[in-house]
């Protein structure tokens, strides 16, 4: 098995499409496609589902991805150790992220980054909007939905699930819905519709065609707190709801899936401090992957 094939597979899995991966690797799309086919033959399993909107990693592909990422991480760590480059990482990196991912997941784990790179200064801006990398509003951004324009480097960070949740106190008072249609008789918590900044977040209609929110909150954190307090039923991020004993997951078969993408400007590709942060977030998500893929 050729390590280059595994490296190409990593690029396709992270980019989510052949064209973007080929550009990132500096090879033709035709060559990359042939190498992927060769890699799948060597492994003996289909690793990618190819569609008109890009490539999706299969179940076998996810297992291979985790193994390949571990090998890559060990190689990079070894190179960094030999070259003594950890001490060279310094300066400020501003990370822009959706409030749910930024506040609930990333912020509590930033101490690990500073411990590894004590000369690095990190600014986290977790707000519910998009960031302009060209205008340097952020050095690295986590986005919902893959950006298609601009001189950007893009890497798939992780898929994540969203499900219906309610607090036990609310269900004790209002009763538990037995069908999705029953939701019409409940207090529903959702986004402020005219403040939704990306179509990827306009998902309430996917859960219930005529969803009507009684309580509208413009942030994921705000919706989470409203539902947890017993205000009503809402569509929450599974990784935020995990480990909350007072939250009940309703209709788990109706889980929705979205994707976080790590994005940074082409001009920042040689900045070691930026690459360190990008790789750090990859490792965090890989280590806590069950949070994002709740069964």
Automatic annotation (TrEMBL):
Q: Which species is this UniProt entry from?
A: Rubellimicrobium rubrum
The superkingdom listed in its UniProt entry is Bacteria
InterPro entries documented for this protein: LysR-type_TF_proteobact-type, LysR_HTH_N, LysR_subst-bd, WH-like_DNA-bd_sf, WH_DNA-bd_sf
Instruction: Kindly list the GO molecular function terms attached to this UniProt entry.
Output: DNA-binding transcription factor activity; sequence-specific DNA binding
Its protein name is: LysR family transcriptional regulator
GO annotations under biological process? DNA-templated transcription
Q: What are the residue boundaries of the HTH lysR-type domain, all occurrences included?
A: 1-58
Report keywords, A-Z: DNA-binding, Transcription, Transcription regulation
UniProt family annotation: Belongs to the LysR transcriptional regulatory family.
A Pfam family that the UniProt record links to this protein: LysR_substrate
